[in-house]
Structure formats: structure tokens, C-alpha cells
Amino acid sequence: MNDDSQILIARLLTHQTLRRDDRLVKRALSDEQFRVEVDARLMACGLKLLDNVYADHVTLCLHRAIEPKVFGARDTWQNNNFGLARDGVALLVVLWALIILPKRERQETHQHADDDQNDMFGQEKPVPRAEDTSIGIPYKALLADFGDKLGKKTRMDMNLGILSKLGFIERRGDILVEGPLLDLLMDTDLLKERIINGALADVFKRVPDQVVHIPRAVLAAANEAAMEAEASASTEHPNQD
């Protein structure tokens, strides 16, 4: 007989992601006993439920302890488990930095994307949903700022297509927006410090909404940050059957 934990896990394996407002997802996030049952079933397969309060979706990923046995090959760790070339990984990190970091800033200050000013009572409100705070970036601006460093238009278009298919981004006309996995599978706690205080420190001294247009002088640093973060971007991997 099917039960709710079995159905939730089967749906996540089938659809890769589910929204946080889904009935069974909400139950898993609020019902401790139900969450324990779900976690136990997933643990038996080396998986865990992955969510964060800043994302509108949840997904599944491997437990850290099982990753080397899955992704290690001949004692050599795969450079990434999505089949992305180096320029694809660099593009992923750049998109994460341009879309997710400003969104997190707005969520933490309880601002919506269309707010003109801070609400003095904003801290009493729940964290805004990603869809209410996430702002896309123009494709033409991305190509102008990063095309030369990330393989020019042909390679960038190819990698954007791969990232869209994987669920990291969505394309809405000329605008690139956050996909369901962009804020789930990137290790924000690790990458934020490395990028904001490291290679892209000069960029992120500006307010978040002004980050879209990045000077060419820091493009090499962006690539360096992407290479450094490559392993982190690949460690948590949803089922893609």
C-alpha cells in the first residue's frame, strides 16, 4: 500500500524538484515525525532531502559520505557530475552570483523585487518567496560582459541551453531567470565568502541591484572564482533519470 512518504519520494525522483507549497513537501518541512520517516527511507538509498528557506523548490541529493563511491573514478574525483565543460561551470557560477546573491540580500532584508524602499516593519514578515524577489539578467548584457571569456556567443548559447535543461536557469525571452535548482545545488555558505570577499570583491562592494553590468577588468577574476568553486558546484547532485 502506498503511503505519503513513499509518494513524496517517488514524485521527487520522477520530477526532480517540487515546490515548497506542495502539500506533501509542506508536511515534510513541518511535521517532524513525517520528516524522520522520509529521511530514513532516503538514507537507506544514500540520499537526502535538500531544501533551504530561500528557495521555492526542494530536491534530492546524495549524502556526503556516499559521494566518493558514486562520483569517484579510478581514485580521481570527477570535475563535475553534470557533464559541464570548464566554461559551463564558470558560467553557472557567474549566473549564481548575479541572480542568487542579490535575491538573498532582498530576502534577508524582507524586500520584494518591486519595492521602492524598505518597510520599517519588514523584519516582522516571513522571508519573501524567491519568485517575489528574484530578478533576471538580460542575455545581451551577459553576452557583452562575459562572452569573450566564456567561449563567445556559440559556446555561451550552448551552455545556457544545458543549464536550462538541467533546471539551473529559465529563459524568458531576452531575460535569464533563476531555475528551481540554482539556489539549491550551489553551496551558498561556501561560495559567498570566496566570491564576495575574494575574486569578485570589487564587484560586490556595489549594491546588489547594480551588479548586472560587470566591468571587463574583473572577468578574469570571475573565471578564477568559478574554477575554485567548481568542485563545490558539483558535489550535490539530484537524480536525473
UniProtKB/TrEMBL annotation:
UniProt-annotated stretches for the region Disordered: 108-131
Per the UniProt record, the lineage of the source organism begins with: Bacteria, Pseudomonadati, Pseudomonadota, Betaproteobacteria, Burkholderiales
Q: Which organism is it from?
A: Pseudoduganella violacea
Protein name, per record = DUF4194 domain-containing protein
